[in-house]
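Recall that a protein's primary structure is simply its ordered list of amino acids. Everything else, from secondary elements to tertiary packing, is in principle encoded there. The following example makes that idea concrete.
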Amino acid sequence: MRFLITNDDGFMAVGIRTLAQAAAPLGDVRVVAPDREQSATSHSLTLHYPLRVRQVEPNVEVGDGTPTDCVVLGLGELLEAKPDFVLSGVNHGANLGDDVLYSGTVAAAMEATILGIPGVAISYTGRDPENIPAWTGLLTRLLEQTLKRGDYPADTMLNINLPALPPAEVKGVKVTTLSRRAYSGSLTRARDPNGREYFWIGGGESRWWGAPESDFQAIHDGYITVTPLHLDLTSYPLLEELGKWQLTL
């Protein structure tokens, strides 16, 4: 198998190096990643300035764009042969529930899916990324099981989250749905030392909820979560209802 690996934490991140090591026993690995942290960039593309790429070591190239840019560059120009999978991560932090809408990690796997290559996003839900390398062996086994199937439906990717536990203490793997999360107190309004007003988005508290089979619940219970995500955001129940509205001009 051939792999293109990227992330949103930058090419120097512990997580992406762990993922590359985990994938290496399964095939050929090529890394194309951002040159700096790009968390919460979601699915953004760089359109208003040229992108530059440099090779930093064998089979590792870095670009000054977003994770989505890196996938576009890798698949469109940098790789000599089409990869079998695009792996994104291991992200330094959870990508559960509504987080997938903001995540550069998930967006990179989603861009691969759009371009016809199966994508897998992987995140570690703990706060200390230095714990991620301990997952290398388990990740190899998990990837081998999920990737050898070869029957990924079109327009579908996998979102995997690892619990904040030592790998030996993990209870197992659960296939899950997305949970929901609401933030409070995440917008700060203040003034800098020069008296100029600024706003800062981030922090605050969050409240989770979802079905018993949701990803947050499974992570809370000590399981690895595997959540299939689909590109089609159409609300089919509402589509049928809208058809009854008889909208006219």
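The two ends are 54 Å apart (CA to CA). The helical segments are 14-23, 67-78, 104-114, 136-147, 215-220, 236-242.
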